[in-house]
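Sanity check. The docking grid for zinc ion depends on where the pocket ends up, so I'm generating a full predicted complex first rather than guessing from homology. Inputs follow.
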Amino acid sequence: MLPEPITALTAALAKLPGVGPRSAERIALHLVQADSAVVRHLADTLLAARERIRFCEICGALTEKSPCAICDDSRRDGSIICVVEKAVDILSIEKSGTYRGKFHVLGGKISPLDGVEPDDLRIGELEKRLAAEPVREIIIALGTDVEGDATSNYLAKRLARGGLKISRIGFGLPAGSGLEFADELTLNRALEGRREML
Ligand SMILES: [Zn+2]
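Predicted complex below; grid placement will be based on this.
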């Protein structure tokens, strides 16, 4: 039996994404035997990151200052908004290097089984942007799984209005997966091969 502080630390670490019980225990055992200055630095870094990072009030990206650098960049094409599920998806598309428009983070996908309804997503915020910004095209860049399909179709219907093109990427994306699994070339092709939904 391990001392309680170690089991408590293990339990806390096991709540992190991608950390299973065995890895959590290994990290906990490492930390309690590490130099205390190293552990203090890790704890300080964790807190500082959490305290300094917020969501961009416009697009929902993770940022230190809001509006974020992309929303604030007048050289980017404000007539195109790429809609993604998660804030990290912006990084995937930015890495592909060719997209020069703006972004909007939905914060999830419609999934009645998981209790995620349209109202839980940042769709109202997107509608406000359509009213206020000179947007001519929405590129829906959600995964190709069932929820991604359902959410894309819902968005296309709800956002439809005169003078707005709504397209969806998908061409070449691995079936049933999210953007994080696509490499840069695939994402580039998916963006270029986007298809108009309406
Ligand atoms: Zn932003």
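Relevant for the grid: Helices lie at 4-14, 21-33, 36-52, 87-96, 123-132, 146-159, 184-192.
Also worth noting: The first strand starts at residue 54 and ends at 55.
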